[in-house]
Amino acid sequence: MLSDHSDRPIGMFDSGFGGLTVARALIDLLPGEDLVYLGDTGRYPYGPRALSEVAGFAHQITEELVERRGVKLVVVACNTAAAAALDSLRDRFDVPIVGVIDPGVRALGQATRTGHVGVIGTVGTINSGAYQAAVAAVAPTAELVALACPGFVEFVERGEFDSEQVHVLATALLAPAREAKVDTLLLGCTHYPYLARTLSDVMGRDVVLVSSADETAFEVRRLMLDGGLARACPGETARGSTTVITTGDVNWFEELGRRLLGPELERAEHLYWD
User: Fold this and answer.
1) How far apart are the first and last CA of the chain?
2) Which residues contact 62 (CB under 8 A, 6 or more apart)?
3) What pLDDT is attached to residue 186?
4) Is 233 a catalytic residue?
C-alpha cells in the first residue's frame, strides 16, 4: 500500500451526483484531506447497463484516479459499480478500494429491531445479488426484501426530489416493502438519500432509513489510520481541497452539485475519454 503518500488526495467516483452524499460525509469527518470526485454523468445511469459494461467503466475511472490523479485510496461511491467491480478493482490496483455495500449492510444490521429489513437499489445492483449476499453474511436470520427502483436516479439527476411524480413512483415501487412490514430500509444507491423525505413519507415515520454514506466515511478513516495514509494536518482549522470532475455537462454539474454538496464545489472540470 502507499503508506508513504499521506499527502495525496482521496479519490472517489459515481455515475453522477449520488456519490456526493459520501463526499459530504468524508469532508465533514476528514476536513483536512484533499478529495478528487469524478461524476460520470456522460454515461449515467449505470443501473440499467450490463454489469460487465459497468465494470469496464469502473476500471477506466479508477485508472484515471490512481495513475493520473495520484490518489492514495479510492471510494467506489456507486452501488452498481461496487457490485460489478469491487473485487476486480482490488485485485488490479495497489491502493485501498472502499465500497459502499458492506458499510451500509453493517448499519442495517445494527438498526433493525424486528429483523424485517429491506434494501432498494438500481436494477443492476439488485440483480447482482450483492446486497442479498452481504445481508445473509451479516444478519443470516434477517428477512430481506430487495427491490429494484428504476427511475429514482433519473429524478435525482434532474434535481427533482419530492415532486408528486416521485411520490407516485415511490408508492408503487415500495409497496412490497410496506407489505412485508420492514422496520429498516437500506438505501442501496448513493442517489437515494436525496429522496429521503419522499421515501419516509411513503414508508412511514417508524421505518428507519439507512444510508451508507457516514459508515463509508468511518471505514475510510479507519483504513487510512491503520495504513498510515491519514494526512498530518498542521492545525485543527486546516481544510483540504475538493476537485470535482464530470464527463457530462459542466454547468449542470456545478449548479446541481453545489446544491447537493455545498460551497466546496467551486467549479467542475470536464474529462473527455479517449
Assistant:
1) 29
2) 11, 13, 74, 76, 89, 92, 93, 97
3) 96
4) no
Domain boundaries, the chain: 10-99+214-270, 101-211
- The pLDDT, as a whole number, for residue 4 is 58
Can you name the residues that pair with 35 across neighbouring β-strands? 10, 242
Name the catalytic one among 74, 77, 78, 166.
78
The answer to whether the bond into 48 is cis (omega within 30° of 0) is no
Q: What are 61's three cell numbers?
A: 475511472
Mean pLDDT of 70-84: 95
Band of the pLDDT at 236, cuts 50, 70, 90? low
The single residue of 108, 144, 189, 250 carrying the catalytic annotation is: 189
Q: What is the pLDDT of residues 115-146, one digit of tens each?
A: 999 999 999 999 999 999 999 999 999 999 99
The dihedrals phi and psi of 136, each to the nearest 5 degrees, come to -60, -35
Look at residue 2 and tell me whether its pLDDT is greater than 50: no
User: Does 3.40.50.1860 match the CATH number of domain 101-211?
Assistant: yes
Portion of the chain with pLDDT greater than 90, in percent: 88
- Indicate the pTM of the whole model: 0.89
Do 10-99+214-270 and 101-211 agree at the fold level?
yes
Instruction: Tell me if the domain spanning 10-99+214-270 has CATH number 3.40.470.10.
Output: no
